[in-house]
Amino acid sequence: MLIHINPQLETPIYTQLANQIIEGIATGRLAPAEELPSVRSLAADLGINLHTVNKAYNYLKQEGFLQVHRQKGAIVSPTPMPAADEFYYQKLHEQLRPMVAESICRQVDEEEFLKLCRSLYQELVTQKEE
Amino acid sequence: MLIHINPQLETPIYTQLANQIIEGIATGRLAPAEELPSVRSLAADLGINLHTVNKAYNYLKQEGFLQVHRQKGAIVSPTPMPAADEFYYQKLHEQLRPMVAESICRQVDEEEFLKLCRSLYQELVTQKEE
Amino acid sequence: MLIHINPQLETPIYTQLANQIIEGIATGRLAPAEELPSVRSLAADLGINLHTVNKAYNYLKQEGFLQVHRQKGAIVSPTPMPAADEFYYQKLHEQLRPMVAESICRQVDEEEFLKLCRSLYQELVTQKEE
Amino acid sequence: MLIHINPQLETPIYTQLANQIIEGIATGRLAPAEELPSVRSLAADLGINLHTVNKAYNYLKQEGFLQVHRQKGAIVSPTPMPAADEFYYQKLHEQLRPMVAESICRQVDEEEFLKLCRSLYQELVTQKEE
DNA sequence: GTGGTCTAGACCACA
DNA sequence: GTGGTCTAGACCACT
């Protein structure tokens, strides 16, 4: 699975990394219980700092995406994620809110916005089914 | 129009402020050409520093939501925002992508996700039509 | 002679006004010794503050474009402006410098830049000759 | 590359700084992808506040001259600036207009004015070719 | 009274 | 050590 880091982006590198791993899990390119590269080798591959990879792994562990074993390295959580709860929906809501607001100002109508979401679901889910 | 700032949140205060003003514009609670409070008075009302308000106003000016007249204060841009272009859609896409990915992991299906978006459009647009 | 003020511009209103009067003199639309509107009437016409017009007139007086008589109002200086001296050239140089620098960065070549200057001379001088 | 700030001047310090960096890029004294000093060190060198340097850097980032990497500091944009578009020419036109007008009043003829522009192009471009 | 600029000093996230 | 953010207090140009 290819990971691409763009250090110029506003989003922190560790977040970019975590997001791409999450996407890998979502699409199935990273299977449950699959081993992830070691912190050291991934850092070397991506040309970033050890601490940065570590931070991403720890974040993902805390969120339940990974299990991190001290010596064995990190694996994708073998059990599925806990399903979305009220808090997750609220977080999603708060994140979407300003995006929808700005979209309305820019005359993006509801259907257009939904089309964008659908296309993302398509893109990510169909990879999973292949 | 009521604005509420939560200094505890991770999102910078000036971003919270800017987002709420954008939402005000989206819903029509802030009409085109409407005058906004001066940086000083708004800062005092919100209990934050005037530079923070200033930063929010300048961001919104740069994005085209506001016009800042040197001595008259800020007004909502009397002309509608430039419609969404390719870049805006791309930005939206990049923002939505990790949200959709995580949602898939948490077993939020497409319909559920779209429902959330629709409810936000409802909430914001119906205010506008009242 | 028509004067148009744009309060949204970054340039102060009094500067906009002064510049347009200078342009009027350059093009001959304002003849030597011609009377200018009173501070009061011009301010009313343009919908701006008395002080602002006053400031513009005083600036132009100080620079030698106008003569301001206490009761008779302002007139265009009946004698031609003092010719450009070393200081004026230096000021011009300092103003042009960053414009040329940025133009180089944006791949505006010298000929293109000169063409722009020529077209401005054309525009302003030919009015004078009509 | 030497930078000199004059706090007495009417032009804001951050603008003076930004202009000199732009000139550095135009002349090639600042090469694409070259690293700039950190805001702190440059501020110390110039004897100004780090926020002032920050403002200059952010302005240049926004205009596309620099890239600011969160933890690595600022670099000159490795890709050339977007070429001048209609808006840039219009901005240039508006800036040149009052300069040409005043020059006409001061009996600076077209050739004299163009000579000044040419000399600036000479000065800046020939540095580049060395 | 308005925003623009500058200074100063502080804390934080990131690498 | 880097930039990002926030606060505080000051002066200035403009209206």
UniProtKB/TrEMBL annotation, chains A, B, C, D:
UniProt xrefs under SUPFAM superfamilies: Winged helix' DNA-binding domain
Against SMART domains, the record matches this protein to:
HTH_GNTR
Enumerate the spans annotated as HTH gntR-type domain.
11-79
What GO molecular function terms would the record report?
DNA binding
Alphabetized CDD domains for the sequence:
WHTH_GntR (cd07377)
User: Which domain of life, per UniProt?
Assistant: Bacteria
**Gene3D superfamilies xrefs:** Winged helix-like DNA-binding domain superfamily/Winged helix DNA-binding domain
Name the keywords, alphabetized. Answer: DNA-binding, Transcription, Transcription regulation
- What is the protein's name according to its record? DNA-binding transcriptional regulator YhcF (GntR family)
Source organism per entry reads: Caldalkalibacillus horti
